[in-house]
Amino acid sequence: MRSSPGQPAEIQITDLAHDGRGVGRLDGKVVFVEGALPGEQVQTAGLRHRGKISETQVASILQASPDRRDPRCPHFSECGGCSLQHLQYQAQLEARQIHLLGQLRRSGIEPVELLQPVSSEEFGYRRRARLVVEKRTRRIGYRRKSSNALAAVEQCPVLTPSLQSVLPSVAHLVVALKGRIEEVELAETSEGIQLLLHAQSPWRASLDLPAVESVARVMWLQGKQVRELYSGEFVSAVPGFMQANRQVNQQLVAAALDALQPLEGKNLVDFFCGAGNFTLALAAAGGGIIGYELSASLVEQARRHGLPNADFRCANLFDTRSLASLKKTLADVDAALLDPPRAGALELCRTLASNGPGQLIYVSCHPATFARDAAALVEGGYQLQSLQMFDMFPQTMHCELMACFRRC
Ligand SMILES: C[S@@+](CC[C@H](N)C(=O)[O-])C[C@H]1O[C@@H](n2cnc3c(N)ncnc32)[C@H](O)[C@@H]1O
What we know:
The chain is α/β, with parallel strands linked by helices. The chain has eight helices and 21 strands.
């Protein structure tokens, strides 16, 4: 019997998609099934056909995977923040690694050496998050799975315990702000917990607001202007990018240091350096290094450490004129590290392919753009010597990776 729209179906699940949905086939068509795991036989809800694919959810599990488990979070079934809490951690790790290697293979690339993945605490690891505020109800939460609507949350077990503990008072504050806030960023920094409220309307002193206990700073962000919520004082720098998982980040930085040894006397560059996460560690270990970054406030934060052998420059690394002016700098460089945003850094990789140093370390949080960029590097004469996954985001299909390239 052929499947018609709205009809349920019985499907064997063979894979996991990049967003954590189970994947099976019906009448030769790929079907994405929310809530299903590889190895499972499931009865689905009604099918929605979209061109060459169909989508649906699990209605009942006829044969469960041995790796299935009960999700820890009560919000898991609707919240879009996590996609894999129903899968044992070891199986999650394998799924992320298979996805990463699959992306690379599609670009025709195999690493010479595949290193063991670096694992993480499964829960309580996330030290920054962005919550959405629902306009009508003023409740806070994340986007729902496959939808822009809000999944209100009262707890979030992937957050660090201290971020979790402030959620109730953040929710209370947002209600008191009477619809003026669209989003709330939470971050556990070295100076304590910081909240950045994305405001819809200009800051006003007249509001009678509850204090948020255990929080070091609450900031009001409107356009590019940032003010302290309670005093209204202007703040010079917006808190910027910070790796989400402290423990895995420490291992990532240690691995970069190891890969670039010996550092003494080396000239290095760190592209997309943020506030100097890698740059400062490499400089402290003896390397002479220039960090390039778009955000002026992150550059300012990095410079504050005052390391004499670390220089920080503002640059747009997606801009072809900036890239052209880098070519001269690259002539004197022994090794480069790049850690771009999810979009990757294709133009920079093309520049490196023709003018880059003997050694490159590419850190990525997006296997698909990494695979595309790696192909440009290989085309330019680099070889992918080693690849290692760093499990920065358990309970999701996201992962961080570090790749070491050498010119052959
Ligand atoms: C994945 S983060 C890495 C930051 C840093 N390496 C770290 O580990 O904290 C990517 C960084 O690229 C910066 N960025 C985004 N677009 C950029 C661009 N066009 N040019 C330069 N930097 C950019 C972001 O501000 C962010 O700091």
